Amino acid sequence: MSTLRPFTCDDLFKFNNVNLDPLTETYGLSFYMQYLAHWPEYFQLAESPSGEIMGYIMGKAEGVGDNWHGHVTALTVSPDYRRLGLAATLMKFLEEVSEKKQAYFVDLFVRVSNKVAINMYQQLGYIVYRTVLEYYSGDPDEDAYDMRKALSKDVKKQSVVPLAHPVRPEEVD
C-alpha cells in the first residue's frame, strides 16, 4: 500500500535511499528546488504507510506549438519497492498532468543500457523516437533513447514518428 502525494521541500532530506541507485540521475539541491518552484504539479512522491519514500517522479512542461509536451526529468523507485507497479503509477500521474496542460506528448531520456526501464516504458506505450549520442556527461560512451508517447492532443500521432538518424545532445530541443 502506498500513497501518492506532492513532493515537498522537507522530502529533500529524506530521499537519499531512493537516489542511491546507479541508474538514477542525481542532481544538486538547487536543481530539485527549481523544479519544485516552477513545476510543482509535476513533482510527485510515493510514500509507504510508515512514511518511507518509495519513489518519486519529477518533470516539467516545455516546448512551443505542436512541440508542447510533458517531460519526465527523473523517475526512480527504491530497490525495496520495485516490481510493484509504482513506476507505472507515477508515469500515469505525469501523463494525466500533461493531458490537463494540453500537451501533445510526453518524452523522457533513458540510458540505452537500461533494458529493464526501456521495456517498462514500451509496455506503457512509449516508442524510441531517436537516439541521442553521448547524452550522459559522466559516461561519454553512454547514449540515450529519447522515448515518447503521444497524448490525445496529437490526434495524428505526428510527435511519435521516429527519426531515422541519431542526434547529438546539442541538437535536442
UniProtKB/TrEMBL annotation:
One of its GO terms (cellular component) is NatB complex. Residues 2-152 form the N-acetyltransferase domain. Transmembrane segments: none annotated. Keywords: Acyltransferase, Cytoplasm, Nucleus, Transferase. GO terms for molecular function: protein N-terminal-methionine acetyltransferase activity. Its main location: cytoplasm. It catalyses: N-terminal L-methionyl-L-glutaminyl-[protein] + acetyl-CoA = N-terminal N(alpha)-acetyl-L-methionyl-L-glutaminyl-[protein] + CoA + H(+); N-terminal L-methionyl-L-glutamyl-[protein] + acetyl-CoA = N-terminal N(alpha)-acetyl-L-methionyl-L-glutamyl-[protein] + CoA + H(+); N-terminal L-methionyl-L-asparaginyl-[protein] + acetyl-CoA = N-terminal N(alpha)-acetyl-L-methionyl-L-asparaginyl-[protein] + CoA + H(+); N-terminal L-methionyl-L-aspartyl-[protein] + acetyl-CoA = N-terminal N(alpha)-acetyl-L-methionyl-L-aspartyl-[protein] + CoA + H(+). Its EC number is 2.3.1.254. It is found in: Cytoplasm; Nucleus. The keyword Nucleus applies. Component of the N-terminal acetyltransferase B (NatB) complex which is composed of NAA20 and NAA25. Catalytic subunit of the NatB complex which catalyzes acetylation of the N-terminal methionine residues of peptides beginning with Met-Asp, Met-Glu, Met-Asn and Met-Gln. Proteins with cell cycle functions are overrepresented in the pool of NatB substrates. Required for maintaining the structure and function of actomyosin fibers and for proper cellular migration. Belongs to the acetyltransferase family. ARD1 subfamily. This is N-alpha-acetyltransferase 20.
